[in-house]
């Protein structure tokens, strides 16, 4: 009985941690997409596309890094590959100058919030 309670509490803790992580990713994607859309005067549909693209990136990063005991170099490689994929996804919808402007706006926001 005690083991069952311990397992239940452990699962509950993991669930809460995962939910908090997802909330952080949602907040970050929302912040990035809203900032880029405001700075570049993009449509609501464009903002939603940016949001979806960043959510996909964050979830993919988490899946490729979380719980895998990667070195800092391996993590950097994952982040670099996902950033490249993010830019490629943006280029599907936006031209090169707009994609660069979106990335610049997000980078400026990141630096401002550090």
What does it look like?
This protein is an all-alpha fold and 114 residues long. The protein has one domain. The chain has four helices and no strands. α1 packs antiparallel against α2 (44-65), α1 crosses α4 (96-112) and α2 (44-65) packs antiparallel against α3 (72-93). It is globular.
Q: Features of this protein?
A:
114 residues; mainly alpha; 4 helices; 88% helix
Summarize the structure.
The protein is mainly alpha-helical and 114 residues long. It has 4 helices and no strands. Residues 16-20 have low confidence and may be disordered.
Topology, element by element:
Elements: H1 2-40, H2 44-65, H3 72-93, H4 96-112
Structural category: mainly alpha
Tally the helices: 4
**N-to-C SSE string, H for helix and E for strand:** HHHH
Taken as a percent bin, the fraction of beta residues is: under 5%
* Shape annotation: globular
* Parts with pLDDT < 50 across at least 5 consecutive residues: 16-20
**Fraction of residues in H or I helices:** over 70%
Radius of gyration: 17 Å
Largest sheet: none
Return the domain count: 1
Taking the alpha carbons of the first and last residues, their distance comes to 47 Å
Mean pLDDT: 84
Total E-strand runs: 0
């Amino acid at each position: 009985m005690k083991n069952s309670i311990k397992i239940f509490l452990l699962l509950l803790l993991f669930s809460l941690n995962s939910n908090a992580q997802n909330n952080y990713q949602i907040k970050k994607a929302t912040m990035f997409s809203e900032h880029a859309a405001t700075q570049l005067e993009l449509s609501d549909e464009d903002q939603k596309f940016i949001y979806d693209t960043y959510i996909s990136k964050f979830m993919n990063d988490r899946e490729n890094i979380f719980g895998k005991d990667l070195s800092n170099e391996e993590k950097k490689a994952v982040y670099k590959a996902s950033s490249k994929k993010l830019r490629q996804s943006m280029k599907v919808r936006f031209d090169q100058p707009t994609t660069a402007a979106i990335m610049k706006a997000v980078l400026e926001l990141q630096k401002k919030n550090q």
